Amino acid sequence: MHTSQYIEFIMKNSINQYAVKNSKVTHIKNTVARPGKVAATFSKEDLSNYGVNGVIYGSIEKLVESSRYITHWTPNPYRYLKYDDNKRVTKHTKDNIKQINTFVIDIDTDYSQEHLTQSLISAHIDNGVPFPNMYVKSPNGWHLYYVLDNPLYMNREKRSLFVAEKVQRSILSALNNYIDIDIHCVPFGFYRFPTVDTVKHFTNEYISKDELINWSMSYSEKNKPALEVVYSRNKSERPEWVSTLLNLKNIKPKNGYRACRNNTIFTLALYFYSADESYEKTFNILDEFNSALNIPLNVSEFKGIIQSAFSGKYKAPNKDHIQNIIETWTNEEHEISANYFKTFYKHKKKRTDRVRSHYEERIQDVVNYLEEHTDTESLYIEGTISNILAEFNMPKSTFYDVLNTLQNDNIIYKKTEGKGRYSKTRIALSKNILMKFYILIQKNKVKQANYVAYVESIVPAIFEVKDNSELDVMALKLITKLIKKLDNIQQIQDKTIAYNSLII
């Protein structure tokens, strides 16, 4: 790969291909409408608190010409940039951003590439975090690039900027459990410049913008703080945000950022549920709200949403989600007052103070043991059930129940061969098996179009069977899960795994 290919992959048509002045190419005209500008520096020291001592670029041609000297740049271009009286670059602020081409994660620890890759695999398996397109090496760490298939264009309301910040926070939060990262890293700013020397891993397959946004929303909703935050049950005064939503009439049936009509009604219903309002009163209030919408929801869907909110599965709406809806339909930034929130704690006796351990802790005991005694190189613990049970202080019936629960939840893979005293059981953590596949795929640099065939070829070795016909139902489920995670392009979606009639 050449440096110019990395730059073109990231920038696409956000800046000119060729310089307007002093270009070496004279017979080709630029076709970019309203091209943006990027800034670059020639050392990290140029990024000081006193300003950016850098150069403004408007074309890929000039960036490539200077690439041997550039250390940092702004991969997300600005509408315009200027020099101040001290010849320092100005106007590189978020309100001047032209479009978001890529999200970049700054890692300040000098991990080995193998350690970094395994950490990213773990984050992907556990939380579905997409893999970056590019690892760019810095002197003391890494910059991970997540380059989008379609940029997030900025509009006057800065709606896309709000979304970009949410996505960046989700990626930072999800990765922070596995590697030390700069949690203050933002989706716009200066990052390590990609060259043939600094890029250590690259794939030319873009990340779907829509899928990344949907993942971010889902991750944010599933990973609330450990202490549940719920709305104060003070019914004497309705929060301002509730009144704001109830007065909206322009909410549309569909919205790409999960601020649609259905989610608005669901959010309001959750508020009334968390405030101990009755189902009947909530139904009447929201029925009036729905009827006043420019495009109201039909009765059957409306009832289903209210019933779901009152099902007891949810405690209260998510604060970020509320802000998302309000800012989408009012085009105004809205900060929800902390006065409407309170936290409460659920205290448990220490385990040593209880006669019997909670069932959940029995489950965690088994998981902890597997995490301590297995990994991607030694996937399984093996032996008779009695021998394995001897490692745990629990009744045999409870142990069987725990294993069944873990297996049903796809946390472990278990297979028993033979009968009676001659039987042998193998148990592995499902995430270790999945990680093993990922490691081999990364190590052998398998192209995405060849994932299915490659997975099929290494399945017998990983599950320790002679051929694919010996795979059990649980193994097939794990393989299906793996393929679905790997399958992000249309070419693979209609393929069939050769050893099973299951369509991916």
Report on this model:
The protein has helices spanning 3-11, 60-65, 113-127, 159-175, 209-222, 240-246, 261-274, 279-292, 299-309, 319-330, 359-373, 385-389, 396-408, 430-443, 451-463, 473-486, 490-493, and strands at 38-41, 47-48, 51-52, 55-57, 72-73, 82-83, 89-90, 99-107, 134-138, 141-153, 191-192, 199-202, 229-231, 341-343, 381-383, 412-417, 424-429. With 504 residues, it is α+β, with helices and mostly antiparallel strands. It has 3 domains: 3-220, DNA primase, PRIM domain (Alpha-Beta Complex), CATH 3.90.920; 229-343, no CATH class; 351-430, Orthogonal Bundle (Arc Repressor Mutant, subunit A). It has a 4-stranded antiparallel β-sheet with strand order 4-1-5-11. The protein has a 4-stranded antiparallel β-sheet with strand order 8-10-9-12, with helices on both faces. A 3-stranded antiparallel β-sheet has the order 15-17-16. It is flat. Residues 225-236, 339-349 and 488-504 have low confidence and may be disordered. Residues 261-314 form the Primase C-terminal domain. InterPro entries: PriCT_1. It holds the Pfam family PriCT_1. This is Primase C-terminal domain-containing protein.
Which secondary structure elements does this structure contain, and how are they paired or packed?
Layout lengths: L2 H9 L26 E4 L5 E2 L2 E2 L2 E3 L2 H6 L6 E2 L8 E2 L5 E2 L8 E9 L5 H15 L6 E5 L2 E13 L5 H17 L15 E2 L6 E4 L6 H14 L6 E3 L8 H7 L14 H14 L4 H14 L6 H11 L9 H12 L10 E3 L15 H15 L7 E3 L1 H5 L6 H13 L3 E6 L6 E6 H14 L7 H13 L9 H14 L3 H4 L11
Helix pairs in contact: 3-14, 4-5, 7-8, 7-9, 8-9, 11-13, 14-15, 15-16
